[in-house]
Amino acid sequence: MKKIAVIFGTTVVLSLAYAAEQAHWPAPYRPFKGEYTIYSGELGDQQSPTRDDRKLSFIIEGQPAKDVFNAMPPDNKQTCSGEKGARSRSKGNVWCTFDPGDGYTCYFGFDLKTGRSIAGGIC
């Protein structure tokens, strides 16, 4: 019985220490809503996923997309939108846009067969 009490006490202390550490973590995870698709082929010609070809594309919008957009300056020289005030930023396979009418959107993806980063959106 003493062993169980010691194990329980240790677990409680470690759990409290972990919770306290998380409260002071300078870069906490934040929830977000988004959309995704699993497909084969290319982004412009998506097909149903196959056994040998599966890719994953994510789209996030709103404040999370704005946070990513602001974390990756500078703006690209060209945008896909002809709308006045439209902006675009990209680094590697992460692409974010700002359109005055639609707000912030980011795209990124992964090849599920290789695990490699791929583009998640096209212009």
In a nutshell, what does this entry contain?
Keywords: Signal. With 123 residues, the protein is α+β, with helices and mostly antiparallel strands.
Walk me through this protein's architecture.
The protein has one domain. The longest helix has 22 residues, at 2-23. It has two helices and seven strands. The protein is α+β, with helices and mostly antiparallel strands. Strands 1, 2, 3, 4, 5, 6 and 7 form a seven-stranded antiparallel β-sheet that branches. Strand 1 (34-42) and strand 2 form a beta hairpin. Residues 1-19 form the signal peptide. It comes from Massilia norwichensis. Residues 71-91 are annotated as: Disordered.
Quaternary arrangement of the chains shown? single chain
* Number of beta-strand segments: 7
Number of domains as seen in the coordinates: 1
Helix coverage percent: 25-40%
Q: Over the alpha carbons, how many angstroms does the gyration radius reach?
A: 21 Å
> Any low-confidence stretches, pLDDT <50, length ≥5?
3-17
Describe how the helices and strands are arranged.
Elements: H1 2-23, E1 34-42, E2 45-47, E3 55-61, H2 63-71, E4 87-91, E5 94-99, E6 103-111, E7 117-118
Antiparallel strand pairs: 1-2, 1-3, 3-6, 4-5, 5-6, 6-7
Features:
single chain, alpha+beta, seven-stranded antiparallel β-sheet, 2 helices, globular, disordered N terminus, DUF3617 domain-containing protein, signal
